[in-house]
């Protein structure tokens, strides 16, 4: 099997994990970092440390950049950006959809292909097939390099608009924080009555896995159609149970800001005359 050469620029914890995954999969891997010592362990295992950014770019047709943000990417590549012509830049740093689209224009001006990516994992998950990485941008370039990118995890192609991967990334992070904060709040509520988080968590995990994800799948069609029948539970019913959560939290000295936020969105929809609708109706208030 012919293993494509790849260059990884940026040796933070994530950059090192990316480079190691490529190397472990058999890809000739060149690495560069402003502080060369960060790549020492990778070099000891067979990666090649480039002395300069120009050397790093010259080494591979696929240039994977994993630095703090788009500004850091431009700064890192500025002196040698002309050498990117004919190569593919895959940016796995963070940024907004608008910044990703601007980067695609920048790369095109240089004669390079650009693919923006979002890593939906922490460094220990890199290289595992169940880890999800989102990509969007140059379709031909993605197709050309997807087998190489598969070394990092499951590569999901979100289409030719370079901004879509970042768009999904930011939205999915919101889902993550909402889920984690909801679990932390629930742990605080039950913990006030002496329940350990370790005992609460298996049930907390089962609830979204076997019920909440089903609600989401059901509500997605409603959100797209703009119709919200209260066929599972109406907003009036949801509001009553939210009141129980607010009261239980307050009685135990647990902060009520989170359930009060849920309640505020629900009350707004009810006040607008939608109490008989289902919970997906709340999106209309979120849309503004």
Provide key terms for this protein.
11 helices, Rossmann fold, 2 domains, single chain, 288 residues, alpha/beta, 12% strand, elongated, N-(1-d-carboxylethyl)-l-norvaline Dehydrogenase, domain 2
Describe, in plain words, how this protein is organized in 3D:
This protein is α/β, with parallel strands linked by helices and 288 residues long. An 8-stranded mixed β-sheet has the order 3-2-1-4-5-6-7-8, sandwiched between helices. It has 11 helices and 8 strands. Helix content is 52%, strand content 12%. It folds into 2 domains: 6-160, Rossmann fold, CATH 3.40.50; 196-287, N-(1-d-carboxylethyl)-l-norvaline Dehydrogenase, domain 2, CATH 1.10.1040.10. Helix 7 packs across helix 8 (197-225) and helix 9 (235-251) runs antiparallel to helix 10 (257-271). GO terms for molecular function: NADP binding; oxidoreductase activity. This is 6-phosphogluconate dehydrogenase. Pfam families: NAD_binding_2 (PF03446), RedAm-like_C (PF21761).
